Amino acid sequence: MAERWLAFNERDESTHVGHRFRAGQDRDIRRLVESVERLAPLTHPHILPVEFFTLEKPSGGDSAWIVTPYTGSLDGLVTLSALLVDKGGQMSPPETERTLIQLLEAAEYAHAQGFQHGPIAMDEVQVDRRGSLSVELYGLRRLLGGAGTVPPSEICRDEVRSIVGIGYTLLTGLSAEEPRIRADRLVPKLDRRWDAWFEVGLDATAGFLSAGEALSALPCMQREIEIKPGPVRSMLGTFRRVLGAP
User: Fold this and answer.
1) Rounded-to-integer distance, Cα 239 and Cα 245, Å
2) 231: which residues sit within 8 A by CB, 6+ positions away?
3) What's the DSSP call for residue 44?
4) Side by side, which strands form the sheet with 52-56?
5) Under DSSP, is residue 55 helix (H, G, I), strand (E, B) or coil?
6) 202-225 burial: b if 16+ Cβ within 10 Å, else e
7) What is the pLDDT of residues 11-59, one digit of tens each?
8) Phi and psi at residue 137, to the nearest 5°
9) What is the pTM of this model?
10) To the nearest whole number, what is the mean pLDDT of the chain?
11) Which residues contact 137 (CB under 8 A, 6 or more apart)?
12) If pLDDT is split at 50, 70 and 90, which confidence band does 5 have?
């Protein structure tokens, strides 16, 4: 959506990222301003905060800047996709679980506030030096593009499905697109509950109803969840079938 610029504040010697938006019409700038104002109240450890917003009028046309914290190191920004490459294309189940918990908690919080990002890409997720994740400019693209005709509940489910897909890719090194290979065939000694979770979470016609439901069903979570049978099939039945339970 924007150019990324590294910015240094000489006053307090802090580092930031400036996201530069170029817009040729006043109404584009107005929509950006309104969108940033709407998203300003979002405060969550895994949603990259907007520190400030400013406008400029260079000779080439109007521009706007959104400034966020710099999460990288001396080597630059690290996205989740870049981290996966650095790790050889796959992550361990514990690393994958930590990633999914952070992303699902961020989505659960934002959805409760009435905001949706839509499908999240790994290039939109920044990783800091401590391994904490932040979704970059959460929800902004959706606000700039207009609400559209898709119900927010469907946008939320698509977002959760994309996070499940990220989990599959981190764990297996492969795309979650069909035809999909069972994760336990690619990862030795993998807990078979992972495949049950992926089968439900990646189902295009059903899937998890919310980020909280997906979070509660993660293999590392010990608490049970209530999944109501839908018009197509019962997701609980799918878990039992995949796990071989009666």
Assistant:
1) 8
2) none
3) B
4) 3-9, 14-22, 63-69, 52-56
5) strand
6) bbeebbbbbbbbbbbbbbeeeeee
7) 888 899 999 987 665 567 788 888 999 998 899 999 999 998 888 765 4
8) 50, 55
9) 0.85
10) 87
11) 1, 2, 19, 48, 50, 66, 68, 124
12) very high
Eight-state DSSP code of residue 15:
E
- Dist CA 209 CA 168 (whole Å): 18
Report the C-alpha gap between 169 and 152 in whole angstroms.
26
Residue ranges of alpha helices (H) inside the chain are 26-39, 80-86, 93-112, 140-145, 152-172, 193-201, 211-216, 235-243
- In angstroms, the CA 151 to CA 177 distance is 24
Q: How far apart are CA 19 and CA 32, in angstroms?
A: 12
Q: Rounded to whole angstroms, how far apart are CA atoms 169 and 183?
A: 10
pLDDT score at 24:
61
| pLDDT class of 79 with cuts at 50, 70, 90 | very high
Question: Which tokens belong to 66?
Answer: 């959104």
Per the model's pLDDT, the better-predicted residue between 175 and 64 turns out to be 175
